[in-house]
Design brief:
alpha+beta; Agglutinin, subunit A; 2 domains; seven-stranded antiparallel sheet; four-stranded antiparallel sheet; 8 helices; about 30% strand
């Protein structure tokens, strides 16, 4: 339900949920009406009435939306009385609106651009990006594997059981490139919960093309506008991004997202040289918790560290990742004395080899060092992008893949510091 008509009310613990499920309005027992981004549990707006014993919020017949205490006192209201027939609607952009027909009488001012591929946030000094809801929904139809890693961005898996189901928990850490210059990325980590599903049909070029054909205009604008490519080009890239890799892996080497398990995910990324947390991610209920500090902020973080405590952006062993699923803590990666993780895949990066196969390359990529990077060729063409610390110097190690893949940070929506929703203990 996303609307309150005259006479409707919310009690403690009741919720309005936007039609796209991205925003929630809830009356909490500590006396606040809070509107938050459902997936990220970040508050966008509140009645600012903590500690008041509010037990109901009523959409009155006179058009006023009012929060009441048991004694009839009203600590908060929209002040829209005198407009019979008004209703309150939680819109898909996260704005709570009291209106009569097309006339808006009051709104919370919490609207968000839900079509962007990222959710931006800040802790007051550093900025972060996470994967937006719609992009997580798209990714929930695509399998993962150990082949999905890159230089400086490592992955491992844990075999476990959640709610009686065999699962594969996949963890990534390090520096994630911003593919196509619109996908979120930076320095950070990911935790995902997956299941092996033998025999499940894999995405085909046709199915990816169908998804693009049926995607909403706002989503297509978010993709095509950000990468500045024509639709057929993006169609080709996205189609070939999945198909060759998937068709060459066995069912045992693929695992599929498990959003149906509603796992509660949390993680902490720490600096192994200082033992101090760099940032935390979650809690998030779903199948995938990714979070990255954007490149500019990570450069600032490095400058903020004492001498000897700077972590190189591609030195993945220097990062600790601690994570919890449904309240259960897993061993820190990579410091557990008896590793439960399998050995990493070969250093030839088979995911890259499988992505697009052989293909012609421009002259600047004709050397043997670039011979196995057709994916990079397609994505960036003749215009390699600088790394996180600017152009490589003569003394820098040769990192052609990294130098080519990292694009400047894509434009991000203004971060909303916000706060986590409070839940009773």
């Amino acid at each position: 339900m996303n609307r309150l008509e005259a006479g409707d009310q919310l009690g403690v613990g009741d919720r309005l949920i936007s039609a796209n499920r991205f925003a929630t309005l809830e009356l909490f027992p500590f006396g606040e009406l809070q509107l938050y981004r459902t997936h990220f549990e970040r508050v966008l707006w509140s009645s600012n009435t903590p500690g008041r014993p509010i037990d109901r919020v009523v959409m009155q017949a006179d058009g006023n939306l009012v929060a009441y205490q048991p004694d009839g006192t009203a600590p908060w209201a929209t002040g829209t009385d005198g407009h019979p027939g008004a209703s309150a609607t939680l819109r898909d952009d996260g704005d709570l609106v009291v209106s009569v027909g097309p006339t808006v009488l009051w709104h919370s001012g919490s609207g968000q651009d839900m079509a962007t591929p990222t959710f931006a946030s800040s802790d007051g000094r550093y900025r972060y990006v996470e994967v937006a809801e719609w992009l997580q929904d798209v990714a929930s139809n695509l399998p993962c594997s150990l082949a999905m890693q890159w230089p400086g961005y490592a992955t491992e898996i844990i075999e476990d059981r959640i709610d009686g189901q065999d699962v594969v928990i996949q963890v990534w850490k390090g520096w994630c490139p911003t593919f196509l210059n619109f996908m979120p990325g930076g320095m950070g980590a990911e935790v995902g919960v997956y299941r092996r599903i033998p025999g499940r049909p894999r995405p085909t070029e046709a199915s990816v093309g169908d998804w693009l054909a049926n995607a909403s205009e706002s989503v297509l604008n978010a993709i095509f506008g950000a990468v500045n490519l024509a639709a057929p080009t993006v169609n080709t890239i996205l189609s070939r991004f999945q198909v060759p890799a998937l068709q060459n892996l066995s069912d045992d080497d693929l695992w599929w997202p498990a959003p149906e398990l509603n796992a509660r995910l949390e993680m902490t990324v720490s600096n192994s040289r200082t033992g101090q947390p760099i940032f935390t991610g979650g809690p998030l209920t779903g199948y995938w918790l990714p979070k990255w500090m954007i490149n500019d902020s990570y450069a600032q973080y490095r400058r903020d560290q004492p001498a000897g405590a700077t972590v190189e952006i591609l030195d993945t062993p220097e990062y600790w990742v601690d994570f919890r699923i449904n309240g259960r803590s897993y061993p820190s990666w990579p410091l557990h004395p008896n590793p439960v993780y399998p050995a990493p895949p070969p250093a030839v990066h088979p995911f890259l080899d499988l992505l697009l196969g052989d293909g012609p390359r421009p002259p600047h990529l004709a050397s043997p060092a670039h011979a196995a990077l057709p994916f990079v060729d397609l994505l960036l063409g003749d215009d390699p992008s600088p790394g996180p610390d600017g152009p490589a110097t003569a003394g820098s190690p040769a990192l052609p893949f990294v130098d080519l893949l990292l694009a400047p940070d894509p434009p991000a929506p203004p971060p909303r510091p916000g706060r986590r929703i409070r839940r009773p203990h």
